[in-house]
Amino acid sequence: MSDLKRRLPRWLKRAVPKGNANHLTQRLVESLRLQTVCDHAKCPNRMECFARKTATFLILGPVCARNCRFCSVEHGTPHPVDPTEPERIAEAVTVLGLVHVVLTCVSRDDLPDGGADQFVHCLDALRRHCPSVSLEVLPSDFAGNFEAVDHLADSVPDVYNYNTETVPRLFPEIRGPIPNFDRSLEMFRRIKRRQPTIHLKSGLMLGLGETDDEVRNVLHQLRGAGCDSITLGQYLQPSPDCTAVRRFVPPEEFERWEAESHAIGFDSVAAGPFVRSSYRYYQQ
Predict the structure, then answer these.
(1) What pLDDT is stored for residue 1 in this prediction?
(2) Domain 2-278 falls in which CATH fold?
(3) Spatial contact of 89 and 122, defined as CB atoms under 8 Å apart
(4) pLDDT in the model for residue 28
(5) What residues contact residue 86 under an 8 Å CB cut-off, 6+ apart?
(6) What local confidence, expressed as pLDDT, does residue 26 receive?
(7) Looking at residue 100, what is its pLDDT?
(8) d(CA 181, CA 188)
């Protein structure tokens, strides 16, 4: 493990984008008092995405009610829900000229609906001010509250994304006591039955100690539950307090997973060391 901490493999080294476009996006987000998961999760792609005037907006505050071992987002007592947030997000999207907007959130187990209503308000504001943009949501599991899932699904975003993150065996270690893999599958089945036009999406991090058979089984179960798209990327330890990387997965393995995922029947697949839920979504 000491070698993993000391040195990244060559395929995980990349140049920082040149130019000021990334600073423009960063300044606008800060001036409107918005949060991005790009910063809070220390995403390795944030400089490139900011340079392309793209960002995944983190709603419902920057403090999470959970403490997942793979995530560097601050945990503790969440902030009160801000009713002005939807309009400020719509303003940022308008100024940046985005064509696809991703909304994600911290887990809000302190709220009866887990924050589903705030997602709906944000989608309503974006449709009023930016009617041509496509809309993707990446919510929590709402702690198993299927009524909250129904409420968000009935707002019919173009894409409903919920990341499995890892294989079921590693859920207790990596994700904690609340997330449940079987419940995640039921959530996908429920959304597909209720709103069949919504494109369903999920994602996995590799390098946490999973086996090939476990990954393959998750892919088959997600597809069987109605999931249309899958992303697979390398887990990178965002802070010393988070779970350590068990293995760096080489690019050729990601290429194999991409081919296998297409063969399983996913409509869209993105697999690679730097792939994240919404990285280069315009190329997927």
Answers:
(1) 42
(2) TIM Barrel (3.20.20)
(3) yes
(4) 56
(5) 118, 121, 122, 124, 125, 126
(6) 57
(7) 85
(8) 11
> Which residue is it, tokens 């790009």?
38
- CA-based torsion, 188, 190, 192, 198: positive or negative: negative
Which residues have a Cβ under 8 Å from the Cβ of 185 and sit 6 or more positions away?
221, 222, 224, 225
- Counting Cα atoms < 13 Å in the Cβ hemisphere of 249 gives 25
In this prediction, residue 272 carries a pLDDT of 94
Residue pair 200/160 in contact (Cβ under 8 Å)? The answer is yes
Cα separation, 46 vs 58, in Å, equals 13
Q: Which class for 129: exposed (0-12), middle (13-18), buried (19 or more C-beta within 10 A)? A: middle
- Listing DSSP states for 165-226 in one string gives BS-GGGIIIII-SS--HHHHHHHHHHHHHH-TTSEEEEEEEESSS--HHHHHHHHHHHHHTT
- pLDDT under 50: residue ranges of the chain: 1-5, 20, 22, 37-42, 45, 282-284
Do residues 73 and 62 lie in contact, with contact meaning Cβ atoms separated by under 8 Å?
A: yes
3-class state of residue 125 by DSSP: helix
- Residues 6+ away with beta carbon under 8 Å from 191: 149, 153, 160, 198, 200, 226
Contact status, residue 59 vs residue 108, Cβ threshold 8 Å: no
Residue 31 has what pLDDT?
58
Give the pLDDT score at 250. 96
* Per-residue pLDDT at 55: 66
